């Protein structure tokens, strides 16, 4: 296990939104460490989104052993987008990577995502694209429908925006207009700002324990209004002027 100084400047921040994932805390943190130790100076930020189980206590115990682990807590649940945003705003790294806290996202893919952003001067986002998904048939059907509708309207070229494995430049994320569901529209909004998207195939795996705490798109029907809003934002985008300061 890596030993980090109590105050340091990481180059990478890993943000993990969780709600009631107590039994998944320790195994996932160990996997993140195994994937990243010795490769980057990094921090792990768990955003405890109003958990009512022992999630906070489990995180507190690991924090005594890992001084690169931070915990943010929402007094009550604000949803996955709010949790991701809280983590990114608190992040110290210039590159932020996210993954879900239920163990379905394999941290072994984090280095590929981070490297795609780090090595691509015009890449604003590296998005995981799931293959061999371990969800129910109905959930996979919902995903295909939602992704098909979104891609037909936004033409963002992304087959799977629901994958929690992503890496992006923190400054680019903070340019985005915030709304509930933002994390599912990142490819379209990043392209809107003039950046490129890198795609990394990732292998999904079954949840270790517990049940899903965040809904898909909060399902499609709620996402329709967001979809219309993002389409409007893209249509209204004007070229960003090149600005230089004139000095005497």
From TrEMBL:
InterPro entries: Glyco_trans_2-like, Glycosyltransferase_2, Nucleotide-diphossugar_trans
GO molecular function, one term: glycosyltransferase activity
Pfam families noted in UniProt: Glycos_transf_2
Domain Glycosyltransferase 2-like: 13-173
UniProt keyword terms in alphabetical order: Cell membrane, Glycosyltransferase, Lipopolysaccharide biosynthesis, Membrane, Transferase, Transmembrane, Transmembrane helix
UniProt keyword annotation of Cell membrane present: yes
Keyword flag Glycosyltransferase: yes
Full protein name: Dolichol-phosphate mannosyltransferase
């Amino acid at each position: 296990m890596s030993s980090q100084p109590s105050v340091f400047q990481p180059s990478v921040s890993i943000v993990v939104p969780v709600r009631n994932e107590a039994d998944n805390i320790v195994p996932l943190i160990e996997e993140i460490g195994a994937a990243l130790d010795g490769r980057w100076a990094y921090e792990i930020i768990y955003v405890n989104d109003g958990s009512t189980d022992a999630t906070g206590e489990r995180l507190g115990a690991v924090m005594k052993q890992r001084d690169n682990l931070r915990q943010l807590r929402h007094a009550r649940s604000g949803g996955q987008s709010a949790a991701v945003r809280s983590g990114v705003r608190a992040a110290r790294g210039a590159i932020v990577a996210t993954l879900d806290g239920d163990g379905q996202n394999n941290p072994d893919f984090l280095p590929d995502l981070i490297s795609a952003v780090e090595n691509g001067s015009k890449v604003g986002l590296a998005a995981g694209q799931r293959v061999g998904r371990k969800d129910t048939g109905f959930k996979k059907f919902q995903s295909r429908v939602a992704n098909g509708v979104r891609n037909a309207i936004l033409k963002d070229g992304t087959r799977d925006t629901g994958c929690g494995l992503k890496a992006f430049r923190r400054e680019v994320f903070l340019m985005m207009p915030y709304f509930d569901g933002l994390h599912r529209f990142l490819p379209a909004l990043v392209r809107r700002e003039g950046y490129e998207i890198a795609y990394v195939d990732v292998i999904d795996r079954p949840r270790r324990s517990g049940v899903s705490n965040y809904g898909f798109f909060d399902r499609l029907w709620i996402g329709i209004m967001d979809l219309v809003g993002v389409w409007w934002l893209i249509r209204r985008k004007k070229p960003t002027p090149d600005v230089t300061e004139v000095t005497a």
